[in-house]
């Protein structure tokens, strides 16, 4: 008997930043048949930096599933490990209600230079750029040219936007806005105070010409610059999740479906992991198996565009979301949880757009084109809606169609800045996993 997790056969799949499988694929392909599992649950973490933390997240999640799985059902679990990261000044995202989650903003006892140096683990080819960024944050020169240089260096870490995914490419605004305006707005969003921020209490958004960097408070501007770097690394991990899903996980899933296999596969993703498993649908190839081996998808507090599956985009009728039509590759339901208490996807996700100065009409207006699926569900796809309920709740689940679940009363615990982003270990969610998979003995997904 191989490795187990929460009492289920467990296979760990590791991918590199380019999406290539590093380990675990062969063990899954050869070892899964011996488990005699009829259903494989593939789960992906989001913003993380430790395989051990990810593994504990998976175990806690499937501990809940094990308590509700009917007798006689045989399932296995595959846990995706991919190179994402969190900053060393952020809370541990193991799933504690007050954990930092995605792109949180905490104080740190570490010098800025050391905090930035930690990014080398996920940007191994950009060591010189990170060294200079760290030095600038440590020194914080009283020179507007240094702020412009910082922005230029940040742009070198960000890969070009994906043209087909315009609805999910807010990070371009990090590169286009004037640096002093960008950093001031970023500081205001994060509600941070610089080392010498006392000079700018009630300070507004004066330009360099109206008082120079000192007029804005150098501490506040440099704290804003640090948050812009944080946002840039956040968006880069988001793109990486899409690559891993498309290049790595999707093709592997097609290999699992070699006839005469009748294996039923279910995808679960949290945060950026929701993006990863969604892009695995694209990775099934130009001619995916029919019927699809993917029998359900659960996106838990997803940190990617709520218009990703839309066709057309409501704000641009000539374009479609990057995953438009991919829901038809699921021979079962797609379920999305959303919660207003998840500040990581409700406020931090559209932060780059706000940094570009699009906040005059308030956050709600920015959310329309830039909102996250974990904030208000899948949009412009004809999704049904329901409230996340207790175990035994019956949901209307349809093949190839979305169900948005209002989880405000369940996913609700957590302190700012990420709020309830990691509050995901509940029997209500375990029941939804099994209901979407058709493994409850009732409430099986209805034919489309």
Number of helices: 15
Indicate the multimeric state.
single chain
CATH topology of the largest domain: Rossmann fold
Question: How big is the Rg?
Answer: 22 Å
Helix content: 25-40%
- pLDDT averaged residue by residue: 83
Question: How are helices and strands ordered from N to C?
Answer: EEEHEHEHHHHHHHEHEEHHHHEEH
CATH architecture assignment name of the largest domain = 3-Layer(aba) Sandwich
Shape: globular
Briefly characterize the structure.
The protein has 448 residues and is α/β, with parallel strands linked by helices. Helix content is 37%, strand content 12%.
Overview of the molecule:
The protein is built from 15 helices and 10 strands. It has 448 residues and is α/β, with parallel strands linked by helices. It has 2 domains: 4-86 and 243-437, 3-Layer(aba) Sandwich (Rossmann fold), CATH 3.40.50; 112-235, no CATH class. Strands 1, 2, 3, 4, 5, 6, 7, 8, 9 and 10 form a 10-stranded mixed sheet that branches. The two termini are 38 Å apart.
């Amino acid at each position: 008997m191989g490795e187990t997790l929460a009492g289920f056969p467990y296979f760990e799949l590791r991918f590199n930043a380019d999406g290539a499988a590093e380990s675990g694929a062969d063990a899954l392909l050869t070892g899964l048949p011996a488990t005699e599992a009829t259903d494989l649950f593939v789960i992906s973490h989001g913003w993380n930096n430790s395989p051990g933390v990810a593994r504990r997240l998976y175990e806690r999640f499937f501990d809940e599933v094990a308590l509700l799985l009917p007798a006689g059902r045989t399932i296995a679990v595959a846990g995706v490990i991919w190179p994402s990261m969190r900053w060393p000044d952020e809370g541990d995202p193991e799933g504690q209600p007050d954990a930092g989650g995605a792109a949180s903003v905490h104080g740190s006892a570490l010098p800025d230079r050391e905090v930035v140096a930690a990014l080398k683990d996920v940007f191994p080819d950009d060591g010189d750029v990170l060294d200079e960024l760290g030095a600038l944050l440590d020194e914080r020169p009283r020179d507007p040219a240094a702020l412009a240089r910082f922005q230029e260096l940040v742009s070198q870490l960000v890969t070009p936007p994906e043209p087909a995914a315009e609805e999910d490419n807010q990070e371009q605004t990090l590169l286009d806005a004037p640096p002093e305006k960008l950093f001031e707005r970023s500081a205001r969003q994060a509600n941070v105070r610089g080392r010498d921020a006392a000079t700018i209490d009630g300070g507004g958004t004066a330009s360099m010409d109206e008082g120079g960097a000192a007029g804005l408070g150098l501490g506040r501007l440099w704290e804003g610059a640090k948050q812009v770097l944080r946002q840039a690394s956040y968006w880069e991990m988001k793109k990486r999740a899409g690559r891993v899903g498309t290049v790595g996980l999707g093709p592997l899933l097609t290999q699992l479906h070699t006839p005469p296999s009748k294996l039923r596969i279910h995808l679960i993703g949290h945060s950026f992991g929701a993006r990863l498993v969604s892009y695995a649908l694209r990775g099934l190839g130009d001619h995916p198996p029919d019927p699809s081996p993917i029998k359900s998808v659960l996106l838990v507090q997803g940190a990617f565009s709520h218009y990703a599956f839309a066709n057309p985009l409501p704000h641009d009728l000539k374009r479609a979301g990057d995953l438009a039509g991919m829901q038809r590759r699921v021979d079962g339901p797609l379920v999305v949880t959303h919660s207003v208490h998840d500040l990581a996807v409700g406020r931090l996700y559209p932060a780059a757009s706000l940094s570009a100065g699009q906040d005059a009409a308030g956050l709600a207006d920015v959310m329309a084109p830039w909102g996250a699926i974990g904030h208000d569900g899948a949009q412009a796809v004809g999704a049904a809606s329901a409230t996340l309920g207790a175990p035994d709740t019956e949901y209307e689940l349809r093949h190839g169609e979305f169900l948005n679940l209002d989880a405000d009363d369940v996913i609700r615990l957590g302190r700012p800045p990420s709020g309830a982003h990691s509050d995901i270990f509940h029997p209500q969610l375990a029941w939804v996993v099994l209901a979407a998979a058709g493994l409850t003995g009732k409430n099986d997904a209805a034919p489309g």
